Protein 1
Amino acid sequence: MPEWVGPVARYILEEGLPGTLRVSSVAVVGSALIGVVFGTLITIKFLPLQAFLRAYIEIFRGLPILVTVFIVYFGLPSISPSFEFAPLTCASIALILWGSAQVAEATRGAVQSIPHEQHEAAAALGFGWAGRHYSVILPQALRRLLPPFVSLLVNIIQNSTLAQTIGGLEILGAGARQSERLTSFPPAGIGEIHAAEIFAGVAVLFFLISFPLTRLAAMLEKRLA
Amino acid sequence: MLLATYDLWAFVSENWRELLDGLGNTLKVSAVAVLGAFLIGALLGAARAHRMPVVSQLTAVYVEVIRNTPILVQIFLIFYALPQFGILLNQFTVAWLSVMIWGGAFNSENFRAGFEAVPYRFREAGYALGFGRRATFLNVTLPIGARIALPSSINTYISVIKNTSLMYVIGYAELTTTAINISNLTLETLEALTVLGVVYLTLVWSLSAGIRVLEARLALPESR
């Protein structure tokens, strides 16, 4: 194996991979929490709340995620300097906005698919709205949400590469930096172009992370169908 | 702080030509890519649904590779890696090619599902009427299966349009690149982002509304 491969691979795995994992884990947890809450609340028949949540869902599902990333990275600081965040944080926020809209829509469908008798039975047992949803409706709805959650995880991991466009250091960003470094003269680089090998390696790394997860999603979908 | 100087009208009236050119490029790339993704999807989807040897397996590999790698990495591979093998493509070609390859993979799954949803007895009826395999596909499976696949394939086309914004990374002057470049010069960040938001949401929302209309109009008589 050529001499340049070792340091490049180490940089991608030690500097890039943690960035991808950090952005993805924050984004998945944030999307799931906000999405489930919003998706449950939108089933309440209270027009202003429904209108607000519907607008939130349609806007962040409709915008290209890159535009949402730019809104967070370029837009928020120009409203107030206190909204200026690091690139990876911006990517997490943008992915939460997009992911929570996806989860909210899926949750709404899952909650509404629970038969009405379940609501009535829970109400008859003396549960209020919150207790009814927390103890009876959501536990059943969440089972149906399991496959979409795994697909969401895959999508979020892949879309975390958008952090690269604003200078975030994740797997793709690390690969791009190394590919650029190698083209410069020694001692920094070796004056050679190895973009093909590096980006193919990045693609393989993402495939190794995503493929088991998409298989898992397909399996869960079959089992829960 | 910049909120006080927010002036959408000034931004649009000073830059509408560039913005319109950008939107034109977005639509041009989208049109080529959507057409290509439709053809790839229909052909490879048919190969998958009819379990054509070799083509079917190769399609499965193509779909898994595209689905399990980020589209941004695919764009980087086409833009930065192909020149290493002497293949130099201009930005416009990279733009439509990369979103077409991505959309084609997702669309072949849409069409596979659509063709597989056509009841076997329909095809049997075609054979009974003396149609050959090809005639049965063209006259029975395709018209019915494509209708079943229509909503999901339009969703894929919407994603294709949204993904053209990623051409920002190769500097192709579609809408996103144009708006961000203008805002870098004029510092009218919020105005540029407003334009992006309004234009993309208008495109996406009207296409989503179109799906609902088409779904109702093209519904199969059985499910009507």
Note: Helices of chain B lie at 8-49, 55-67, 71-81, 91-116, 120-128, 133-163, 175-186, 189-218.
Protein 2
Amino acid sequence: MKPLDTLRYARDAATGTPLRTGLLLLAISIGVAAVVILISLGDGARRFVVGQFSSIGTNLVIVLPGRSETRGFNPANLVTSTPRDLTVDDANTLLRVDGVLRIAPVVIGTTEINAEGKLREAMMVGTNDDFFRVRQLKLGLGRFLSKDEIGHGSAEVVLGAGIRREIFGAENPLGKTVRVGDRRLRVVGVLSEGGQGLGMTTDELLIVPVATAQAMLNSNTLFRVLIEARSREQIANVKVHVLKVITQRHEGEEDITVITQDAVLETFDKILNVLTLGVSGIAAISLAVAGILVMNVMLVSVTQRTAEIGLLKALGATSTAVRQLFIVEAVLLSLTGGLLGTGLGYLGAGLLRHLYPSFPAYPPLWAVAAGLGTALVSGLVFGVMPARRAAQLDPIQALSKR
Amino acid sequence: MLMPNGGLIQLQSINRTFMLGDSQVHALRDVNLNIVSGEYIAVMGPSGSGKSTLLNLLGLLDRPDTGIYQLENRDVTSLSQDELAKIRSERIGFIFQSFHLVPRLTAEANIELPLVLSGMPTKERTKRVLQALKEYGLEDRAQHRPNELSGGQRQRVAIARATILRPAVLLADEPTGNLDRVTGEEVVRLLEELNAQGMTLITVTHDPVLGARARRQIRMEDGGIISDVTNAPTIIT
């Protein structure tokens, strides 16, 4: 029997029972679609996080107050467990470290903004003029905070685009006075819309000078110090020196944590890759179920077509030819189901992107390959047994069945 | 005993037993048979007399437990399954009581099936099928499925399928069993025409009228041949 004829015969056999074939295709395509969509989700999550991390700036070294203990017992912990404050002065000293391009101290707190008779809660970030470049922000209107040489804090505020819209609408807010907490501040700029970073949108932020924020929050300590290194190569060097300088200033106690953007990125990348694999493994289970379904349907098909198989043998079909017919049918079914499922997966991922535009749920190529491959392999594996049963059928008994 | 030439089929002390539960059934008991090319044979006998087993054996669907079966002077008892399939494809045509057409295929595709299985090129196939449709008067039924055909038409499709590769032997198992008298008569006449063209025809039947038409009548009982009568050729005027 020629391959093309085998293919045609198998196709006719499959389309001869539309309901059964349709249901089977549905099962396989749902399995494959699940694999494709779940992988897109996992991979999308990875890309999302990596994107978020990259969007906070480049060549970043981040200083956190407090020590995340990774060195076991330290006698210093017995004496004092409270970390010293990380202060603005600490941050400014870091400017002198070799390889540091600019720094931005960060204080964060929630506060209220009150203007034009409207009141709302907002996240306030206290920082300096360099924050603008370190975080690679974009301005919609006006200017960013001015340079604060003396460190007393001026009465300025930069609004997030969302806050500006809610309070001032289409009006120009530049030069207007707003009440933030217990202070009256002058609006000097508005950030452009759609800024992202570390899970928070800059649309809902108020940015004020760090001294002003510290006074309002009645606190001396910084939430973070963002350091931008001169180049990627200097990141490691900067990290070591920053740690040394701060330790010196804190009377020899290492009570800060320095993390680099690269290390964090890499870790997240790894974690989320594993997550994606795990999730797709779960999806593959549904494919295995679909594979068993293929086997079941093919076994039923063999039983139902006993007389036909007997006839084929009487007409001179070899056992090999009969086996091939059934394997080809199984593979044809699973491949069609796989293709349908891939289409369905793309559709599902597209729907996800439509619903959550910021989430990059694109099915990677390997997801499609994995889905199709699993479908094909399961079709082959689960098609062999029914095909063998068909090939071994005794033609006399097969023919006597009416 | 063995005829060196001219014999189409030679069976020598063929035995075939089946296990039915615990009891052993002797379906064929020491059967000896010589069939010459072009014969018209009716195998008759009550149910369970072994006539179907004999037909399956002749059609190479079954193997004897002991004995020698020579088809066209070739011992076929020792051939492999695939070799047997090849001989079935080329030398033997089957006709069944219940037609055994593939329900999802058209009449045309059903007739084409043996050609497809033998791996014949498409062009040659179409030509042969077209010719067969014409010969059996099925041209206007070519695109119909079996359930859209009458019983007689179905059996004609089955005969066309069995004979499309010009086999040496045509084995018919109760070919008129599912047909009424008139269509049955038509089908028998068709088979006899094929026999007249030189094809060896072996029918298994319960029907004494049908059996009486054959030139040679073999009666079986309990797995053995009890009578083997060859009538003088009737001259058709």
Note: Chain B touches chain A through 27 residues (CB under 8 Å).
Protein 3
Amino acid sequence: MCLAIPALVKSIDGSEAEVEIGGVSRRASLMLTPEARVGDYVLLHTGYAINVVNQEEAEETLRLLEEMARGAVDEEEA
Amino acid sequence: MKFVDEFRRSELAQGLIRSIQQHSTKRARLMEFCGGHTVAIMKHGIRQLLPATIEMLSGPGCPVCVTDNADIDKAIALARIPGVILPTFGDMIRVPGSRSSLQEVKADGTDVRIVYSTLDALQIARENPSKSVIFLGIGFETTAPTVAASVLQAEQEGMRNYYVISLHKLCPPVIKALLDSGEVKVSGLICPGHVSAIVGSKSWEFIARDYGIPCVVSGFEPLDILQCVYMLVLQIEQAESKVEIAYRRGVGPEGNQRALELMYRVFEPCSARWRGMGLVPDSGLRLSKAYQCFDAELAFEFDPGPAFEPKGCICGEVLRAVKTPRDCKLFGTVCTPASPVGPCMVSSEGSCAAYYIYGAAGE
């Protein structure tokens, strides 16, 4: 029910946007995220963008997990 | 980066699983509040990947499942009023009320429609000016702002035929009620990702502070959940209780202030009845005074009749995490996704449906 999926903002017209999810285009409301810009990923929930995805945080999380994966392997091999 | 496959990489999952195994020495009972997490955990087989020290419990975070029978009866009674079109989200129409479901009354000619969004419900209202369109609004803080947005849009367009039944529910008050009941002992809480996207991670601080329970907000991909479990394990091992975020790309401490502002402009907190939990103070949302003209319950006269629960169904106990779906005599025999008795088997994110579809034998 609280499912929200990342969607790429392709164009913006007032408080509406055209977004793309896995190659499929659809309309979305930006009423809850007026700060969204073309090129952003938003979390799309029932036709509304509920947040802008923070790309830097995503990269930082993955970097941390990559480090952990290497560390866990090193510890096991040690 | 598309923010999906990157968070499903198996070598990173293996790193997290090894780290969890290395650090987890104390017994831990972790509750995922959100039904979306229940499904993700079952679907990806995460329970089977965790060490024996960790026990996973499913909480009441499925809006369809926690909707009380009396409220479903109310929606059915409103849908049956001549000239009414009742749009709602998909899962809701199959949930049995006391005597029938919205799907059954639809088969009798009542105009019940499944919509993906309140934007679709508004469009139905525009296209049917002679009909009354009553949107059945269910969902937590993630969804309520989208319903608030539809009310504001209807107001702006001067629509006179758009109404809402507000069965929205708020998560922090029900988690408090669950913990206060003392029925369930939880050593760590997997906090809901998209509710937190709206309310902010700081909404869970009272749990860490007042109940001493570690809280970590999680996303819905397997790496998100494993990272969340890892962070909870570290807090438990170090005897800490604080609020952390394992889903920083989607959630911040403050949430979405704009969404909260719209939600509290249109709605105000009220007591709400939860299946399995009873009446929980300030855990629901009703239309605020300025927007009462959109409240279907005030605009129409209707008689839902007396409410009663299906015999033998233990959805209430499953929702309180005191029993699991496998404790139910009806599970998988009388009650299946094709012919559900209780709501936890109807909803795609109900515990019973998740156990039925993804559960390993005997688990």
Note: The mean pLDDT of chain A is 93.
